[in-house]
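Letters spell out the chain; backbone shape is given numerically. Both lines appear below:
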Amino acid sequence: MSTTTTDSTSPTGEIGRDRRRKEDARLITGRTRWTDNITLPGMLHLAMVRSTSAHARITAVRTDAAKAAVNVVDVFTGADLADTVGVCINAWPITPDQKTPTHPPIATDRVVFAGEIVAVVVARSAAAARDAAELVEVDYEELPAVVDLADAERNQVLAHPDLGTNRSAYWKFDSAEAGTGGSVEAAIAEARTTGVVIEREFRQQRLIPSFMEPRSVVVDPTGEQITVWSATQIPHILRFALAATTGVSESKIRVIAPDVGGGFGGKLQQTPEEMVAFAVARRLAQPVKYTETRSESLLSAHHGRDQIQRMTLAATTDGRVTGLKVELAANLGAYVALVGGGVPVLGAFMFNAIYKFPAYHFGVTTYFTNTTWTDAYRGAGRPEATFAVERLMDELAAQLGEDPLVVRARNWITHEEFPFTTVSGLSYDSGNYELATEKAKALFGYDELRAEQARRRESGDPVQLGIGVSTFTEMCGLAPSRVLGTLDYGAGGWEHASIRVLATGKVEVVTGSSAHGQGHETAFSQIVADRLGVPFEDVEVLHGDTMIAPKGLDTYGSRSLVVGGEAIVRASDKVIDKARPIAAHLLEANPDDLEFVGGRFQVKGTAVAGVTIQEVAGATFVAHNLPEGTEPSLDADATFDPDNFSFPHGTHLCAVEVDTETGRVSLRKYSACDDVGVIINPLIVAGQVHGGLVQGIAQALWEGAQYDENGQLLTGSFVDYLLPTTADTISFDLDHTVSPASSNSLGAKGVGEAGTIASTPAVVNAIVDALRHLGVSNVAMPCTPYRVFQAIQQAVGQKSASGGNPS
């Protein structure tokens, strides 16, 4: 049974406190070091020459004019750097027979997407490098390009002709084969005879992460180590990739991720630009810098999503689900990226969501196209899964003529059933879907809005009200290393932390997690202040530098708090354990007689004042009066590898108004009740949820990368790739419940991806709900006015053709 509370404030007042972020003052006033702000003596600047063709042979690269330009130092082609530039790696081959073409950071003889690097210009200024890049002439022999995922499935045009197919891999999970459930084919066959079968195809459009700070890299090869500054989420993984593919010893590479302006998975990558900059700096023995333009970022930084989802749900006539079958086609783009095909595999464990499906089958086929390669984007597989199953649950409710919340409640795991082993084999440790839904309904005014909807329909109002539901969970806190091992992932899921209590009583926290806007310095300071009983202001968090924090696996998958935070807790506890015998010696007491409360050691049951841990740190530093054989140090390290994921959940409700005469969609109200376990800082959590909501809503309504038939990106600027502003969104009503996680002592669950995962289906369900009575059962994302209007017209036409009944 899962225990749920509404208050997560700790006795010291730090856990659960609305602390303003330590980082914000320097971030919002510009007193910080973005990678592009770094300037080194003798530094040169790079500009990339990129392919204008989506698929072509390179027949000539002429660099003489560029080399002769003012302030140009040199120009290198792929052939010039081939021996030293390394390759871009794939860390997750999802099957043993996965086809994985070599991914050169700079092309030599063939390009496979528009935007691929074919040459690099080195100059004394960024402007000179960009100007000279225009002088490089590249001759191409055009080859047929496959751009659309559905075309890639047909294998008529090949993205990589040498592979003989566009198919990279097929990965499946079947509950009958795994022993976690029954046969989905049998469930579907039975439902076709005696129950209900819902079959739908959904399209997850391609998205572009669009982080605030463009990618940037500076490489300095002039010291004992080669130092790399990069706007990256993964400094430790990047160091490994550089060493593993270039032959430079890992000990000779230092990677620093300074303040990083957002990532959303888009900087979870070993990028070609980093590899090229590393090779050029070594070649010239001079520091170099590369910073992409916004159009380069949209064109060549990896994209996300891009799936075709073929879904079949089986249920009884009273609305109990009996089986779920998922077959996906996933677009890898031109190469298998760092995580690549693993993104839809992550989603495989989440299509069953919060529901008690007795039978389940999941299969994904990954395909190559001549487009920018895809990889993790906020949520990475789990938003795609949640969208599909939540759309299906609404379709089931419509088929049965029932309220979508009633149908969900009939099928979800109740709070008394936790821990619960799902049909996909995961063990959900805690949750309370009933309470989260109850609170969300009250916040939203669900019954009142349903009544208003009925009145509008009855009156024939041209602006119809739609109500969308999304009851979700996700697996985050990536991940137990042994689970990753069973999936053939190329790394573990542990995290490392060190705590240093200085002579002055200040505390340094060194973490392998690497922040890019989440508020790590604040939340981690709160945890340590709470654990050690020191002032919040006395804690400093160090991160993002492989020399200062040599061990770590970085930041992605909502793992920083539940994995990195737990490592910090364990290191803090080791500090207390090391301080205890010293405190006992100072107090002339037995260590077993001491208690540690509020940062102070004192003898149990006495009024003796005791000593603070900061006083113990001072005594340890001078080492004048320590117990015999005691090491004069309180420093401690800890590495934490979780034994399970964490499973945040929530209920999100969205109301939209749809103008049936124009197709325009307006947000009316959005309410969400999330359960992210014990909350360290409510202010940070609210910020994460708000940001996530906007990104998920943006997928539903506005965002979508588009190519023409020749593989040219049509949405290569923010004029064409539509991002929302504050003028496009509304205020959100938020609440929370607390079902503590059992996978870490903090009881925390991840929050970084929750809003993005839940909001997209809530919005699309609301749009469809507004138009269901007209015969509309789906609108393809993004749900632009044109697409909504088109769906209405098509449904009305079908209704007329069928004599008044929607087909």
